[in-house]
Amino acid sequence: MDITQLKQMKDIDKELAQYEKAVANLTSQKTVLKDIIEKSYIAWREM
Length: 47
Known about the structure:
Blueprint: H1 3-45
């Protein structure tokens, strides 16, 4: 491997880490929103 290929791999690894962080963040947000909706629905049903 030459220097250019190593730099490209490093850039790709950095980009992949950003995507993984974004997916983790969105997954967490989805879980929170799902919990809120479920609790709101339960509260509404008990009215």
